[in-house]
Write a structure and sequence with these properties.
52% helix; single chain; Heat Shock Protein 90
Length: 439
């Protein structure tokens, strides 16, 4: 049997789930105890008290059986009824057929009516509408009479006390449990915030705390974060060092080429320019998303700046659509570099490109579309890997680069806690690249 449908009704937060785990057993225990209490107290005790009253009623009925019709029953039964604290009086015959009356929440009244009806068949009607007295309409040999006595003689006093105590102490223990539970859950939330911040490229202070299992998880996270930071630092230093060292021989090559004839120099200078572009791409990839600190940034203004710079460079780029407004925590230099790479790729492999921005309460989306050949769906994951070239799928005659454009954009998107999604542009027919970042 599958219980997957329960996930739709389960709370998502750890506090809400902990509260459910804590409160559900308390509520179940209260319901079970209430049912047992009602069965034992309202039924068991009421039945015992009703049996005692039954014997007293039979004494009164026995005394009434010897009276002639029309006699004053109140005076005649005074010797028996007064010591039993009961009052007997004659009533009209129609009152024998009156319906039973009681309050809707008078559960013990159900037991009283059932028990007295079984033990004293002469009782025709019950009036339990008053919480102070019980009035019985009885058909006797001397005519219809009403027997009235104190309600406390047949129902337990203060039956709600146990329920009140149970609810009070349940609330008290639940509050104490919440205080303890909050202290236990605080380290989990701190670990979640630290992990989320690190996934978005921010490093917030974190020290393991809480139970031993939580401390172990926190220590593992700190070790993992340190290893990742060391790997990023090593990669950055390695690529920066290699790229920097290559600039010196390239400069010497440019000086040497400047001394050659024009016909021989053009092809070689183009090769040097290509190598210079590769080195610049290596440096951009080495920087990753670590350029600058996150700050409140207007995505629309950022996209507008990228489009205007591209237009000044003679590239056919336009800002197509803007939806929503506001600011988002971004590294503006890194995000601008990602958009520049996407726009450059779009212009390189297509005739024109369009940039759009969408801002909602939950996410931010930058979209760059072109009218080029696009990328087949089965190759889109490979296209985001570093140093991957897909020239057969793209226009090979327009330059292939080093395969770092989409990789840099992907790296920057992940550093902001987002993702780069590639798809087919239904508007222009080429590639659609979306940078989606959760707010």
């Amino acid at each position: 049997m599958s219980f997957a449908w329960l996930k739709l009704y389960m709370p998502r937060g750890i506090y809400a789930r902990a509260a459910l785990i804590l409160l559900l057993p308390v509520v179940v225990v209260q319901v079970v105890v209430s049912v047992l209490f009602a069965q034992r107290h309202f039924e068991g005790v009421t039945v015992q008290m009703a049996d005692t009253v039954v014997r007293e009623i039979r004494l009164v009925l026995q005394d009434l059986s010897d009276l002639p019709r029309g006699a004053d029953v109140q005076v005649a039964t005074a010797d028996v009824a007064d010591p039993l604290d009961m009052r007997v009086e004659r009533i009209p015959a129609p009152e024998l057929e009156a319906p039973n009356s009681r309050d809707w929440d008078d559960f013990s009244g159900l037991v009283v009516i059932r028990r007295l009806s079984e033990q004293v068949p002469e009782i025709r009607s019950f009036d339990l509408s008053s919480s102070a007295a019980v009035r019985l309409a009885v058909d006797t040999g001397t005519g219809p009479v009403a027997i009235t006595f104190d309600r406390r003689r047949i129902s337990a006093r203060n039956p709600h006390q146990l329920l009140v105590y149970m609810v009070f102490f349940s609330i008290l223990t639940t509050m104490v449990s919440f205080v303890y539970l909050r202290n236990q859950l605080r380290p989990i939330r701190r670990l979640a915030r630290a992990a989320e911040a690190f996934g978005r490229g921010r490093n917030i202070p974190f020290s393991p705390a809480g139970a031993s299992e939580l401390r172990a998880a926190g220590t593992a996270f700190v070790d993992m974060r340190n290893r990742i930071e060391r790997q990023i630092e090593t990669r950055t230093l390695m690529l920066s060092g290699v790229s920097h060292d290559l600039r010196t021989p390239l400069t010497r090559m440019r000086l040497s080429l400047s001394m050659l004839e024009d016909d021989d120099r053009e092809a070689l200078e183009q090769d040097v320019d290509d190598m210079q572009g590769m080195i610049d791409a290596f440096l951009d990839f080495a920087k990753g998303d670590g350029q600058g600190e996150p700050e409140r940034t207007d995505p629309v203004a950022l996209a507008t700046t990228v489009v205007e710079d591209a237009q000044r460079a003679g590239q056919p780029v336009s800002l197509a659509e803007v939806e929503g407004a506001g600011t988002v925590r971004l590294r503006p230099l890194a995000m601008r570099r990602a958009l520049d790479n996407l726009v450059s790729n779009a212009v390189r492999y297509g005739g024109r490109a369009e940039v759009s921005v969408r801002i909602t309460e939950k996410s931010l989306r930058f979209r760059v579309e072109d009218d080029g050949p696009g990328i087949p769906e089965e190759q889109r994951a490979d296209a985001q890997r570093p140093f991957t070239r897909l020239d057969p799928a793209r226009n090979q005659d327009k330059g292939s680069g080093v395969g770092l454009g989409l990789a840099i954009a992907t790296d920057i998107a992940r550093g902001h806690g987002g993702t780069l999604r590639l798809g087919h542009s239904s508007k222009l027919g080429g590639l659609r690249a979306d940078i989606v970042i959760a707010r």
